[in-house]
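Could you help me review a protein record that somebody else here produced? What it holds is a sequence and that sequence's fold in token form. I need someone to confirm that the token line plausibly describes how this chain folds. Take the sequence as given and treat only the tokens as open to question. This is what I was given:
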Amino acid sequence: MPLFTGRKVALLGTGLFLPEKLLTNDDLSKMVETSDAWIRERTGIKVRHIADDGQLTSELAACAAQNALASAGIGADAVDMILVGTNSPDTIFPGVGPKVQAVLGASRAGACDVQAGCTGSVYALAMAVSGISSGLWRHVLVIGAEVLSPLLDWEDRNTCVLFGDGASAFLLGPAPEDKRGFIAADVRAEGEFHDLISFPAGLVERPASSETVAAREHYVKMKGNDVFKFVNRKLPPFLKSFLVESNLKPADVTNWIFHQANLRIIEGVLRRLDVDPAKAYVNLDHLGNTSAASVFIALHEAMEQGVLKGGDLVVMTSFGAGMTYGAIAFEL
């Protein structure tokens, strides 16, 4: 069973940070063979935020974390662990987490990154809840942060039109007696599909060389049609099973927070679940796919806009490179 046991855990605060620069579909049409209509029809995206040259994932992550701490009214010295879901760390090592720990001055905290494709923040959230529930930690910062724009091939319209940069952070801690908090989580991987989304070169499998640079292998690659088919085949039965094993019914869920990758994917999964599309918060039109940050940003916005409020039941779900996917259910 995917149910959390032990100490109840609650979401205490959230924070957001987005780069100021915007990139519209019309801007992209001047860079690559595409159009606003083509992008909107296939993805639902209109505009995305793009980091300035030199603006690092750790910078976005630290700003979002500071905002989450302020939202919760808790100081950095109370944080025991920092987990960062990201696919675009400043460097492979050191990780983003330790850099954020230093910026925050979280002197008591451990810190590391969780790399599980766009599902990384859901994986990290499940780990954080488990750690608090078991008594290992009391307060954990979980961050989803991405600066993918330098890793995109701006000559490949199949990938460069999809992604945006941004970060959001959650502060977790013990739940008050009157809160249900985090209820259940389940995360999966199907590594036989590892080639559907990849970053081919630059590490052990294909070390950087003049050949890998010439072949443009240092950019995100994606088999878009195969990803679309995989998600529509795997996610609906997984989510149905997750609800059953979590002792929940679709009608119990106030709102679904999906990975903001593609509007057609979200609509297709909702249709297979027989869920009203109005019960899923969607923001990819003005943010694009912010990868591991997307579900955290979506929840933050939904709460900020009053779409979600205390006592609402949320199911957050994502999928990504690996291939990985997962879900977590909690009451606000």
